[in-house]
Amino acid sequence: MTFVLLCPRRGEEVLAAEYQDFLRFAQLSEHELEQRALDTPEATLGDMTGVTGVFIGGSPFTITDPYDEHWQDAISRKLVDFITSQVEAGEEGIPIFAACYGTAMVAHYLGGKVNASYSETPGVSTAFLTDAGRRDPLTSRITSPFRVMTGHKDSVVELPPNATLLATSPQCPTQMYRLGDTMWASQFHPEMDGDAITRRLSFYEEDGYVDPQKLAATYAAFKGHDTSVSNSLLKHFADFCRERAAARASR
Fold first, then answer.
1. Which positions fall inside the Glutamine amidotransferase domain (predicted)?
2. What is the CA 218 to chain-centroid distance, rounded?
3. How far is Cα 176 from Cα 24, in angstroms, rounded to an integer?
């Protein structure tokens, strides 16, 4: 194990699907990526000794309409405490990449603002790098604009202190940001292409992400889009983590 995937969700099938999505696009083996389900309020993040990088997967949690106030708040605070500790550790901290829920979670708990002004139904959007995004050690490795898979109820309308906006879109101004130097959060799903989002949404058809009368059309609209640039962010993050670990080891 060199990487950890923290998953604040429940359900063996959806957890298995999410794990396969991260393995595929981060181009990691099962030996390299350990999944840890945060499926109860008492769940712990586990030992991080020797971990090169951490992914935080998506979640049914939402800030504007809490999914389960006790479970959601308990796990969110543990994640935010961990993120804060690693950002404050600077060069000694573990790099972190959070997909979807982590964007609103970090903003909400660390001094930003979140509402539902820019929520997006499941679908495809076009994101653009900001000037800072073109210089960022992670997002500078991709081209702009790029296609992304989205689907979220929360939206960040004010970044937390010490955060830098990296990517935006007309539908959702905060698509990706960096906290400190080594924590990234994307509102879109870099672990999803058309097939992956079709599979993921099938577990949450009754959770209010899409009008039940429009499900067939929503699934059809996922097809035929090239999201390879956004998907490549997970591989680039893994590469960044390895490069950083190698540089530290050589000091």
1. 48-193
2. 22
3. 21
